[in-house]
Every structure is written in structure tokens, then in C-alpha cells.
Design a protein that fits this description.
Elements: H1 7-12, E1 15-20, E2 24-29, E3 34-39, E4 44-49, E5 55-59, E6 62-63, H2 67-89, E7 99-108, E8 114-122, E9 132-138, E10 144-150, E11 160-163, E12 165-170, E13 173-178, E14 189-191
Antiparallel strand pairs: 1-2, 1-14, 2-3, 3-4, 4-5, 5-6, 7-8, 8-9, 9-10, 10-11, 12-13
Length: 202
């Protein structure tokens, strides 16, 4: 976290926007928990507060008011944020409540860098608490260079393994946007302000 700007810089980063591999764009108000999500391959927009679960849904150009439909898509929006934000800011969440870290020793990543490997498991947190991750942290830069995802913590082989590349400064924090061939989280922005009504109006 220090290598990426530190806890204070992370706490002070107000709004973060990014694109999840061309599938959807997200704008997150870290201070209030409001998120705006716009799907790019289907006519769906979700405005949801991560703390209350309340919000608005625009589907096929029509605002949804039927309670079951509204609940379904608000849940979808929150789960999209949980997944998509982890791909971008995981190193800042290593010490979240419910995350268990285990040092796995010195390893060499796929690019030949000397790293320390850390294992992440989860105790009754998130939507998939059975997941496990391995994270490679460069011994010189102290930045994550790659990660591996295991669907279950008992799995011996990962579902996937991806690099963490293309580190750039956004505001006062450092973020990585490269996740392998043709896989980018850009464009990324860290903003101090957004237009009024961003989280209230479609």
C-alpha cells in the first residue's frame, strides 16, 4: 500500500472511475458508497448505494419501479462493483476485515522477478467467501506483479493467472490497469468532484 501511495492517499481518493474490460464503466464515490454502473453491451444502467443497497435502475431506457425487478438489478450492480473493483484496487484491500493473509515464501513470477507470494483467503466476507488468491509482490518495487484466482480455497490449481502491469499515477495513488493480452481497465480516473446528480439521475 505504501508503494502505491499509502493509506492516507487511498482514503483521500474520493471518486474512482474505470472500465471493466469493455463490458461496463463504473464510477465509485468511495466516501458515500454510491456507484454508477453503465453496461456497454446491454441497455442497463444501475445507480446503487453499497451501504444501503438502495438505488435506481434503467433497463431498455425505462426506469424500473417493480420491487422484484429493482432488487434483482440493484443486487447485480453491487455484485458487479465487488468483482470489478477487486480487479483494480485489490492491493488496497489486503487488510480489509475478514481477509486472512498467509506468507507463502519467495517465488519467481512469470517475468522472472523475485517476489514474495501472499495467499488471500476470506472469512465470511464478500459474495464468494470460498475463493482464494495468490498474489506475487515484487521484492524491489513492492508492487503486485501478478495474481492467481482459485475458485475454492482447497483447489490446487488456479482458474486463471494474470499479470498486473501498466502502473500509473492517478491523483496521489498508483494503480495497475494491465491484466494480460488485450485486457485493460482503462480509462481510469481519480477525481475530486463529479457533476451534481451523477448518482441520482440517468
Amino acid at each position: 500500500m505504501r508503494a502505491m501511495g499509502g493509506q492516507t492517499a487511498w482514503d483521500n481518493a474520493h471518486y474512482i472511475s474505470w472500465n471493466f474490460f469493455g463490458n461496463r464503466t463504473l464510477l465509485w464515490d468511495k466516501w458515500s458508497g454510491n456507484v454508477r454502473i453503465e453496461w456497454q453491451k446491454k441497455p442497463l444502467q444501475v445507480l446503487v448505494n453499497l451501504n444501503s443497497g438502495k438505488g435506481k435502475v434503467l433497463l431498455n431506457g425505462v426506469e424500473q419501479t417493480q420491487p422484484d425487478t429493482l432488487a434483482k438489478y440493484l443486487k447485480m450492480g453491487k455484485e458487479a462493483w465487488i468483482n470489478d473493483s477487486y480487479w483494480l484496487v485489490m492491493p488496497f484491500k489486503l487488510r480489509d476485515p475478514g481477509v486472512t493473509l498467509k506468507y507463502m515464501g519467495e517465488k519467481t513470477d512469470d517475468e522472472g522477478h523475485a517476489t514474495d507470494m501472499v495467499q488471500l483467503t476470506f472469512e465470511k466476507v464478500g459474495i464468494t467467501p470460498d475463493n482464494k488468491y495468490h498474489v506475487w509482490v515484487d521484492k524491489k518495487t513492492h508492487l503486485v506483479t501478478q495474481w492467481a484466482y482459485f475458485e475454492k480455497f482447497t483447489d490446487e490449481k488456479p482458474r486463471f493467472q494474470r499479470p498486473w502491469t501498466d502502473y500509473e499515477s492517478y491523483g496521489k495513488i498508483l494503480l495497475s490497469t494491465g491484466r494480460g493480452k488485450d485486457s485493460s481497465l482503462k480509462p481510469v480516473q481519480v477525481l475530486d468532484s463529479v457533476p451534481a446528480g451523477t448518482f441520482e439521475k440517468f
